[in-house]
Amino acid sequence: MSNNTENSENVGVIKSVWRWFRRPTARFALGTLVIVGFVGGIVFWGGFNWAMEVTNNETFCISCHEMEANVYREYKQTVHYNNRTGVRATCPDCHVPKTWVHKIARKIQASNELYHHFLGTVDTPEKFEAKRLELAGNVWKVMKETDSRECRNCHNFDFMDFTVQENRASKRHAEAIDSGKTCIDCHKGIAHDLPEGAFDAERKINKAAN
Amino acid sequence: MKSLKMLVATGLIGAFMSIVPGTTGVLAQEEGVWSLRGEVALNDAAPLADTKKQNTSGKMGRAYRQQPPLIPHRMEKYQINSKVNQCLRCHDWPYNTEEGAPKVSETHYFNRNGVALDTIAGTRWFCTQCHVPQTQARALVKNKFKNASEVD
User: Is A195 in Cβ contact with B84 (below 8 Å)?
Assistant: First the structure.
């Protein structure tokens, strides 16, 4: 009985809100509504973008110790962090897509990472190491599916000068273009340590894709 | 008067301390001991090391029969540890056929008791203990070494 009355009350609230929303205003000028709507739009859209940028940089990523103590420290030893020319990539350059739709999709997926942060799924190096093959495998799979989209934000076959590459590299890159390979097919473990069983997992992923 | 005597005494002690060798230890250390950076003050930038660039133009071949073949490509970033050996991704059978890489010698699949294994023997795991990247480095010590094929 009590449930029924609660339900009817709820319906009442929803209905009244809907009526308020639909009711034309006789109090405010159209100009006021337009200006308030315009300014409100700027504030909300600007705020949305701001929040997006604040959560899309390395400082934010390594504010969680799971990232700082494991993958970030390994990353600092690699060529994408420290190199001849001083150009470097940060976490989101490789792990968050640049195009808007894909970026938002990735950001929504990241809420799962927040969930596991508070759950403490990988809060020690040992737990992280035990999960590493699975986590790395997820990234490899996604990169293969997207044809290494994030790599290609900077690296492009069209602008590679094979003559300045090492002999082996230029030969293998030419082969890769001919056979339609993607960056991640070969370049695994370039920014983070490889987990045990990495190459067996790699072959499984490649077999499933072909 | 008392204060004047004290002043003279402290002055004398100070002069004595500076003559005794033990107290000048800091100076002696600065002159006699070098750090690995060479004779460069802590706050100064050390000169750049003369690094040897790796030769990746082709295979250099062996100087004698038992020589472990040299590595003709870059591999300084390859991970070889208790979890992964990145060399084996291409040089282990059957993957060497897909990648067009030389196969690891069959001798590397026998353990120390002579038992044939399907995976590389643990004693052979760390490739770079024997196989080194090839460089055109000048000999560290002057010597008359000749390749085995050139010896009369």
Answer: yes
**Residue B87's Cα: distance from chain center in Å?**
20
Q: What is the pTM of this model?
A: 0.75
pLDDT tens, position by position, for chain B (152 residues)? 455 565 555 555 555 444 444 444 444 445 677 777 777 787 888 777 666 677 777 788 889 999 999 998 888 889 999 999 999 999 999 899 988 899 999 999 999 999 999 999 999 999 999 999 888 777 889 999 888 988 87
Chain A residues with at least one Cβ partner in B under 8 Å: 78-79, 166-168, 189-190, 193-196, 198-199, 202
Residue B11: its H or E element: helix B2-19
| B94, closest residue in chain A (CA to CA) | A203
How far off is chain B from A94, nearest CA to CA, in Å? 19
CA of A80 to nearest chain B CA: how many angstroms apart? 12
Q: CB of B58 within 8 Å of any CB in chain A?
A: yes
The parent domain of residue B109 ranges over 64-136
Instruction: Give yes or no for a contact between A79 and B77, defined as CB atoms under 8 angstroms apart.
Output: yes
Q: How many domains does chain B have?
A: 2
Residue B42 lies in a domain: no
CATH number reported for the structural domain that contains residue B89 in this entry:
1.10.1130.10
Q: Is residue B10 part of a domain?
A: yes
Contact between residue A106 and residue A168 where contact means Cβ atoms under 8 Å apart: no
Instruction: Please name the member of B72, B84, B89 whose beta carbon is closest to the beta carbon of A196.
Output: B84
Token representation of residue A60: 């934010």
Shared-domain flag, residues B74 and B132? yes
Rounded to whole angstroms, the Cα distance separating B133 from B72 reads 6
ipTM: 0.73
